[in-house]
Amino acid sequence: MLSIDGGGIRGVIALEVLARIERELRAQTNKNDLVLAEWFDFIGGTSTGAIIAAGLSIGMTVNELRVIYTEHGENMFKKAHVLERVTRNRYCHSQLEDMLKQTFGASTTLGSNKIQTLLMLVLRNATTDSPWPITNNPNAKFNVRGKVGDENNLDIPLWQLVRASTAAPTFYMPEQIKIGKKTHTFVDGALTPYNNPAFMMFLKASMPEYNLNWRTTEEDLLLVSVGTGVQPGAAPHLNLKDMHFLHSAVSVPAALIYANIVEQDKMCRIVGNCLEGDELDVEIGSLRGNRSPFEKKLFTYVRYNAELTEDGLAAIGCEHLAHLPLNRLDAVDLMEPMREVGTAMADAKVKREHFEAHCPFKKLGAHFSGKENVASDECL
C-alpha cells in the first residue's frame, strides 16, 4: 500500500521521495521501466496526494507527474478575478480542472479499467458533513450495482473526484458531483482526519465492512506513507492579547490538520511495525521497532516525511533553506527548493531493505500484475 499526504504545491516534495522509491524498485526487480502501479496493489492520497495517487494508479511514471507540476503549477494557482478573490476563492479552478481532464481523461470513471491498482481518494462531503474516503473496490457497498438504489460511485469521473479532493476552501470553489439523483457538494479531503490517509487505507484493506479482507500480518502487508513536509505552528512568544479572532481563524484549521497528520501516523506506528519515521514527540520518541502495546503487529510500516523547521531541515542537510516559507500550499515560486528538500528526504530515509521482504516479483515472477498480488483470495 502506498499513501500520499495532502499539501498543495508541496506535492513536489513527495514526488522526489516517490522518484527514489521508483528507482530502488527498478533496481531491485531488474525492471528498468517499472512503474509504481506494477509494484503497489493499493494507492491512496488526499488533495495534492490525490492527484499523485490517481496518476500513479493509471500507470504514470513519477517523472510524468513531475512534468505536470512543472508545466501546470502556475496555472493551478492562477488568481481568480478580483471580486471572486474577495468574496469566494483566491484561485481559478478552471485551469486545474482542464489539467485533470487532460491527465486522466474526461470520460475515465472511478471504475475504469484504465486504473491499474486499487485506489483511494479522500474527499469531504459538505452536503452530508462527512469524510468520503472513496475507493474503486468493486465489492464496496456503494460500488455494487443495485445495492443502494441508482447510486454507484464507480460511475463518477475520476478527474472530478480528484478535483473535489483538492477543493481547499478559500483556495478553490467546491466541486459538485451528481450521484444517482442527488447532487453533493465536496471540498478538500484535508478537512477530514485523513490528510494523511495511511491508517484509513489500512482500515479499508482489513475491515470486513469494506469487503477487501486482506490478511493483516507484517509479512503480508507493507504500508508506505509519504508526506509533503510539515511545519508545526509553534509560537514561543505568543501571549493572550495576540490570540484574537483573526489569529484563531487563521491558525486553528492549520493546527487541526497538523494534529490529524501526526495522529494518523502515530496509529500506524502503534498498530504496525515501524521501520522508518522521525520522532513523534519527546515522550514517546519514534516508536520504530516498538512492540507494545500489541505483541502482534498487523503490517510493516515506513513513514517518509520531514519538518520544515530549522531543526527539521538541518537534520536532512537543508538548513540553508530554513528562511524560506516552504510550508505555503501555493508557493509555486519555491518548487525548486521544495524539490531539494524532497531529494534530501529520500537520501536520508528511503532504504532498499524497506521493500525487499515484500517484493511481489519474487512471489509471482515476471508476469506480475498489480491487481493479482493481493493478500487474500477474497480480495477481488
Per CATH, the architecture is 3-Layer(aba) Sandwich
Number of helices: 13
How would you sum up the global shape? globular
The level-1 CATH class: Alpha Beta
Order of helices and strands: EHHEHHHHEEHEEHEHEEHHHH
Oligomer: single chain
Measured on Cα atoms, how large is the radius of gyration? 20 Å
Strand-pairing-aware structural class: alpha/beta
Integer average pLDDT: 86
Distance between the termini: 15 Å
Unreliable runs: 362-380
The name CATH uses for the topology is Cytosolic phospholipase A2 catalytic domain
What is the total domain count? 1
Binned, the helix content reads 25-40%
In terms of DSSP E residues, the strand content is 5-15%
The CATH superfamily title = Cytosolic phospholipase A2 catalytic domain
GO cellular component, one term: membrane
Motif (DGA/G): 188-190
GO molecular function: phospholipase activity
Motif (GXSXG): 45-49
